[in-house]
Amino acid sequence: MNSKKAQQKTEKAKQKRWGKKFEDKRNWKEYNEKLVRRGELYLSLEFLENWNNELDKMNEGKKGAPFSYPEQFVMFMAFVYSIFHIPYRQMEGFLRKLSDLISRDISADYTTLFKRIAKMNIILPETISEKKEDVIIAVDSSGVKVTNRGEWMREKWKVHRGWIKAHIAIDIKTKETLAIEITDETVADSDKFDDLINQTEQNIEGKKIKRALGDGGYDDKDCFNTLDKKKIESGLKTRINASTKSRGSPYRAKCVREKKELGGYKGWRDKYNYGKRWLSESVLSAVKRIFGETVRATSIIGMFRETKMKFMCYNSLLNCA
What we know:
alpha/beta; 2 domains
């Protein structure tokens, strides 16, 4: 009996802290099939259908040696490189065997693959679905390791390689990455907020950002001024002791006063659906699980490119079903 009372007391405490228990209403049969169909993208050979036509367009008026492999093929190999972590020499062997299976020679050598993938245009908007309504975005950032040597090596040889940061803005409805900025670890989240907003507006083609959700890392007057200027509703969490005086940002002061009028954090959270901000963390976690937490490139440009490629590939996975 005491055990039952203790359990009920624990449940009440949880409900007081976290609210009502989440009810999962998703269609599991449909959701499961969607996840299964993502696997089809790993061996999608659609680039073969327009192989010759695409090459003709690419080589039209080109000076020097003509291209031997179309851009869609290079994008497919970039996806293979990102998701399977296959070294370039092994990718050449992969293509050699695949050529035997499809009865067509697509066995590009590893040098060609390396050069073409390094020069490939990473166009994020091409992986974003068409927006039929204004969007609510969540912004966040996360570190990406630049080496997999481990903590022991760092302690042993006193080598600090640092890390890079991926700053993203996601659509909370589709979980697509709408904007991404890559920096080193010294750049604060708030410093890239304006760039994420501008990039998102360009990538959603005529639709507007209705609201922007972000944690305390974006509690900065410049971030609020950007939202005010663009008429975007703020879902940025302010500090508990935030001042109600403008001090360079009247809109931030207005948001702080409103938060107090709503009874504090909980009332503000419920009004602006701030809980959806965690979806940005979900995307960052998913990208790391699927594509790895480290980058293999050695140059700064290569690291930034490889990280962007991971998020572009994740968008493709979301939209393949």
